[in-house]
Each structure stands twice: as structure tokens, then as C-alpha cells.
Design goal:
Elements: H1 2-22, H2 29-43, E1 53-60, E2 65-72, E3 77-83, E4 87-94, E5 98-105, E6 110-115, E7 122-126, E8 128-134, H3 138-152
Antiparallel strand pairs: 1-2, 2-3, 3-6, 4-5, 5-8, 6-7
Length: 154
Amino acid sequence: MKKFTFCLKLIAIPAFCLLLTAFSFKDSLEEYVIFLQKSFTAHYDSSQESTVIKKYELNVTNNGFCRYKRYFNNGKIEYFAFKLAKFKDLDYYGTTTSGLLYLRTKNDDVIVQTYNDKKGDVDSMGTCVVIPLKNIEAEDLNQIRENLTKITKP
């Protein structure tokens, strides 16, 4: 009987642990992306560039990319894109009312393209994307950093 009880314990304990881990929820990339898109959209400050920029597009995609496109009044277009997995750190320069968010990557991982520029179309690589923000608190910035950091971890 002792042998049977011992074998039962050997089976029951790992099965119970497996059952507990099966119901633990892990945040998905999609949840992080949705949060980042909502944060960037809610806090984007178009008034910082309104004299020069006609419109902009700022997207965080489900396949893990951040894309920022600016359309200038003179017809020039600037496009920035980087894979969120290459995120290194962020810096914010400004106040809670208005400032600039620098999203930095590990290396030259930001694709920078210009179109319709007087100097010609240029394709290059950069290390950061600068996004104008408004009405953002330190807690919001910490949550943005936390979500970006979670995306970079395997």
C-alpha cells in the first residue's frame, strides 16, 4: 500500500503543478501593441509641428513594428520604422504638458526614408525615432517603457 501511495504522489504532484501553470495567463504581443498604439494616439502632439506638418501616421503593428510617417506642407515625406524587438530605451525631454519622446534602438535599427525632398530621396538608418507628445505623466511613460521592454524579451 505504501508503494501505491508513493507512486500516486509521484503522479499527482506534477499533474497538479501542470494544471496550475496551464491556467496562468501570459500577456501577449497583441496586448502590448494595443496599449502602445492607444498611448501614442492619445498623447501625440500635432501642435508642435503644425506649421510644417500637414498630416502624420503613427502605427504600432501586430507583427512588432513601429512606423511613423510625416507629410510636410511642401510635399516632402519622412518615414521612420523599427522592429519593436530592437528597442533599447526611451528618453522624454519636456514637461507633462508637452515634450519629445525618443525611442532608442540597440544599433542602427531605425529605417529612415525621405521622399519628394529637394535634395533627393534618401534611405538611411538611425538609432532613434522622435515623437512629439502632450499631456503625459511619468506613470504613462513608465508603462510605455515597460510594454516595450516586455516585447523585447523572448
